[in-house]
Amino acid sequence: MFPKYDVIVVGAGHAGCEAAVAAANMGSKVLLATMNMNTIAQMSCNPAMGGVAKGQIVREIDALNGYSGIISDYSMVQFRMLNKSKGPAMWSPRTQSDRMMFAAKWRQMLEANENIDFWQEMITGIIVKDGRCCGIKTGIGLDIEGASVVLTNGTFLNGLIHIGDKQFGGGRAGERASTGITEQLMTLGFESGRMKTGTPPRVDGRSLDYSKMETQPGDEVMGRFSFTDSEMPDKQLPCHITYTSPEVHEELKTGFDRSPMFNGRIKGLGPRYCPSIEDKIERFSDRDRHQLFVEPEGWNTCEIYVNGFSSSLPEEVQYTSLRKVAGFENMKMFRPGYAIEYDFFPPTQLKINLETKLVKNLFFAGQINGTTGYEEAACQGLMAGVNAHLAINEKDPFVLKRSDAYIGVLIDDLVNKGTNEPYRMFTSRAEYRILLRQDNADLRLTPLAAELGMVNMEDRMKRVEAKEDYVKSIDKYVRSASVTPDQLNGYLANINSAVLTQKVKLHSVLMRPNVYLEELRPLLPDLEQELAKYDGETVNLAEVGLKYEGYIRKEQEMVDKMNRLEEVIIKNDFEYDALQSLSAEAREKLNKIQPRTIGQASRISGVSPSDVSVLLVHMGR
User: Fold this and answer.
1) Which of 151, 341, 484, 563 is 20 to 30 Å from 112 by CA-CA measure?
2) pLDDT at 609
3) Helices 54-63 and 374-392, interaxial angle, to 10°?
4) Separation of alpha carbons 62 and 57, rounded Å
5) pLDDT per position as a tens digit, 512-522
């Protein structure tokens, strides 16, 4: 009935979809198994992609030939570049999405790939022979052979939904939980844990009074995630902002005794940086209000996502509390918020390529690894799909270093440090964030994807090569062009910058604080003529390179030093117990993590610099 597949992907959320297309675009024959074909790539929580650090990840996925960026551009209802008031290392793109368009476009692009087949059914286990994963077992008793398997089960593994005193099994509202896989993996020696996440109520936008809220429009000039000419809308929808109040907080507190979070029914660990509204009130009791973002779910629906009001309180408490929020006085609710508990597997049980240490050719990606967020899941899926293909073809794994990408930071953190709460990416987690900007993800990563042999990379590489040439041309012009006092002194005086006393190079003026090419263009006709040849993103990229060249150079020097440690490979059979000079904790952690390189070993919690020195001396370094 079934052919033997190269890669079987279990789960069709953000991780599963990216895993399937990555393996397929590498040339593998892929089976994507899901419990419901109608919920492929569903946005289970907020209808948005990107944000602080997450936007960088989406651009990196796109640079590596993933689909999340293209689909986010196609389905966006609003675009905003966050943190524009800060340095360029912090700029983060975010799109508000049409939930239905997002999922429909994902399914369309998956079905257009001839290397991907589909199977709709619960998967209850994997097939393991001689320590190697070689297929899956389905709920109706079918065995499907595959040379490798990628598990991307999201919140479905023994999922348990909580609303007040009610609890019921489910992986998402209206969908059943997945059973069998956790139990089998534990018999194989895997360690599992429980985590929780939550979602806010959805309400009827027709019942809200937007005149009582702040309007939050999108950027006047719409940006995009994809480095291709992705399809985009020609208009945007506004979001709105409102606030809770002491009256709202008092109403919420009436349900605390029935909250599963406070009465101990929820055992899983929740996200520190995306807490429920009841958690916010408890932890930040000194604040008399909290911000709520009123976000549309799409172009052709009145459904509204109340971002910031995640809750597992009884539904009647959620209802009465929300009706005390400004603009929500006549609110009608579509469905209440809820919390969900699910199984995860501590990611220290994985190799750096996301393959499990206990079972060969078995890969984990997404929330099964303890992460939270569409973007974190999608990038893991992409990397797992690529590495599953490479593993079965006996090729070296594809590993991104911390200096290569936010994706590299995320996976390195998970595998080396593990996580005891849902892991979310932040710019602060990346020590080389001046290098890992959203504007240069294609320059950093597209050549790596091309080297892997992915399909359809010719056009992307031409774009990268042209962009590099354009940036060099702009750089050369700015360094060589001269400006005179009469051209710029009026502008410089207006921004409280020292006026010119003689003719100087344009580069020296640009290096001043608060001086930008966009503001200089109308004053310098030759500059305008030069920059008119290029698109805005290329000009911005060149400007960042010029203004921050000293910082970029210093950070690159730090990377070069660290990469020397990354080049020192540790053999798979290295006997750490034989080195008594290592601390006991270091021996324990090194034996557990089994790092590939000295650089990786240096980032393991409990491995000190002196332990690293012992390893280097032992290896003749």
Assistant:
1) 151
2) 87
3) 30
4) 9
5) 999 999 999 99
Evaluate if residue 260 carries a pLDDT over 60. yes
pLDDT reported for residue 287? 93
Domain limits of the chain?
5-155+181-197+342-452, 202-339, 458-552, 567-618
Task: Identify whether the C-beta of residue 26 lies closer than 8 Å to the C-beta of residue 196.
Answer: no
Q: Which CATH class is domain 5-155+181-197+342-452?
A: alpha beta
- C-alpha–C-alpha distance, residues 7 and 32, integer Å: 9
Which H or E run includes 306?
Answer: strand 303-307
| Tokens (6 digits) for 254 | 């009436």
- Burial of 358 per CB tally in 10 Å (0-12, 13-18, 19+): middle
For residue 547, which amino acid is it? K
Considering the entire predicted model, what is its pTM? Answer: 0.94
- The pLDDT of 298-305, averaged and rounded, is 98
**Domain 458-552 part of CATH 1.10.10.1800:** yes
pLDDT single digits (tens) 77-117: 999 999 999 999 999 999 999 999 999 999 999 999 999 99
Question: Could you tell me the fold of the domain covering 567-618?
Answer: DNA polymerase; domain 1 (1.10.150)
The pair of structure tokens assigned to 496 is: 């409280």
User: Under CATH, what is the fold of the domain 202-339?
Assistant: Elongation Factor Tu (Ef-tu); domain 3 (2.40.30)
**Do residues 63 and 40 make contact, with C-beta atoms less than 8 angstroms apart?**
no
